[in-house]
């Protein structure tokens, strides 16, 4: 009997829903910053959006009905977005040399457009969101495999 033919435990639904909430909140936040506050995204922000926005559609597709294979599709996108967000955070912090940044035109990837509480920048928020989503997906995988 194949592992995928076994019905997944419904206990994994809640972490998937939490991951979707984080992804949807992140997408709405990015749209708010771009469209309402008129803050133009840099190249690295666009790549993070490319990884985040599909999660808002992919995760509900795996929740109704509950399908554990959704993690197989969502986790690579999440990890790709996490790596770009980590690169962006390290670039803004000055750990990565400025000559490596991919922004040659438009908004500089090193520019800090928003800083809340003295440390929360847009790349940091993105890194936190991708970390939460990855953690929730791994937790859902663990709960569904029981």
From TrEMBL:
It comes from the Bacteria. Keywords: Chaperone, Disulfide bond, Electron transport, Membrane, Oxidoreductase, Redox-active center, Transmembrane, Transmembrane helix, Transport. The chain crosses the membrane at residues 12-34, 46-66, 73-96, 116-140. Belongs to the DsbB family. BdbC subfamily. It holds the Pfam family DsbB. Signal peptide: none annotated. It is a multi-pass membrane protein. The keyword Transmembrane applies. The keyword Membrane applies. InterPro entries: DiS_bond_form_DsbB/BdbC, Disulphide_bond_form_BdbC, DsbB-like_sf. This is Disulfide bond formation protein B. It is found in: Membrane.
């Amino acid at each position: 009997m194949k592992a995928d033919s076994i019905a997944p435990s419904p206990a994994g639904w809640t972490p998937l829903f939490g991951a979707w909430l984080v992804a949807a909140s992140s997408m709405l936040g990015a749209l708010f910053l771009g469209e309402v506050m008129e803050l133009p995204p840099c190249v690295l922000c666009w790549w993070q959006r490319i990884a985040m926005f599909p999660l808002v559609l992919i995760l509900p597709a795996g929740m109704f009905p509950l399908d554990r294979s959704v993690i197989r599709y969502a986790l690579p996108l999440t990890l790709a977005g996490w790596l770009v967000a980590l690169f962006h955070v390290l670039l803004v912090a000055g750990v990565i040399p400025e000559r490596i940044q991919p922004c040659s035109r438009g908004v500089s990837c090193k520019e800090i457009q928003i800083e809340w509480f003295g440390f929360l920048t847009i790349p940091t928020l993105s890194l936190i969101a991708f970390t939460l989503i990855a953690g929730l997906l791994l937790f859902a995988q663990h709960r569904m495999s029981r």
